Amino acid sequence: MTNAITTPWSLCTEEFSSGRAFDALRRMREDEPCPMTEFPGVRPAWNLVRHSDIVAALRQPDLYSSAVGGTTLRDQTPEEATYNTSLLHVDPPRHTKLRSQFQARFRPGALAPLQAAIDAIARELVTSACSDGHVDAVRDIAAPMAAYSLCAALGVPASMRDYFMRLSALMLADTTPDPAAVDYASLRLPAELLHVFGGSPSRAMMRLLRADSGERNWLVPADQDGDGHAPPEVQDLLVILSTAGTGMTQNCIVTGIRLLAENWARFSANPCGLLGNLALLAEEVIRLACPLYHVRRTVTADHELHGQLLRRGDKVLLWLYSGNMDESVYQDPGEFDPGRSPNPHLSFGRGGPHYCLGAALARMEVVGVLRALLEEVSALRVLGPPEMLASNFVRETSRLPIGIG
Predict the structure, then answer these.
(1) What pTM does this model have?
(2) Least confident piece of the model among 151-160, 225-234, 348-357
(3) At 361, phi and psi to the nearest 5?
(4) In angstroms, how far is the first alpha carbon of the chain from the final one?
(5) 246, 191, 247: which is closest to 394 by C-alpha?
(6) Residue-wise pLDDT tens digits, 315-325
(7) Contact predicate 223/365, CB 8 Å
């Protein structure tokens, strides 16, 4: 039994911020691809660290369940298992039925008409940043880019998008691993929004989707009443969109800004080369961003993997970040290669039923910001080290000072 990552689990945040955890994952890929790790206070967990093993697990929800035990290291209580029935915590066929209610709206073809609007949002934010000269890439570009683009996809009026961003932050604050890191003062709702805030961020979000609009939003069912209530699956989707669609997407965007800034001298002489391959560039950014370090599954039947017997009820961590760094899949995986192809990264999941619902929208946003930077910016540089959220689960940049002009 290998204790490959420092315990207790609460201390692992230091391992990730220092990079030592990445070295441990590399050693596991090389020497012991399915070790079990002990964690004080919770049951031990198996660790899948190779790209092929992770993909196989994602594609077998009947063997590696999201519904049994939940999707985080800590086991769900029986009460949580009863009520936590969002897309993230159910398996097919129930997952398939829930997802089908919303999936068509987030397919690339359905989102394609939004590209012009998303590009305009990116240019607006980048132009504003250029006028300031020195900005926080998270606060001034990535966070509003993610929120405003999601507003465009959901049909939220532009006049309400800053309120939407504040509500998203409130919803994200409920899920952050380090609530003390949340600046609640900045989330204070303005007086003009108090009439839609009913004490629940998801209820307020539902009301906001209908604000200033004579027509019902596509997310609001036809029998929606006026008090902000909605079916559980709609409220669950709002939570997912407002956390993954803002916090996780913004990390992909800020990673792209950082990578361009760090390599500006290398690429600025020939920006057309990058502009001609924005799709490949965006995929490489998303691979290196990898907003979740891992996802958890629970074994539903005894089986053997790499000589280890995994028993029914065992906990398994699928290390998405490790899969993105697998040397058997990627040459020089730690290097930023804007023309890398193929690039079968796991940042959005891969091949399984839980593949990120908003992946196409996130790609459009990353492409929009990269295009705006390459077309509008004459200089881009990092002014200080990025500040990372203290977490062993969510990979999120909380601050990145950059010089832009």
Answers:
(1) 0.86
(2) 225-234
(3) -65, -45
(4) 53
(5) 247
(6) 999 999 999 99
(7) no
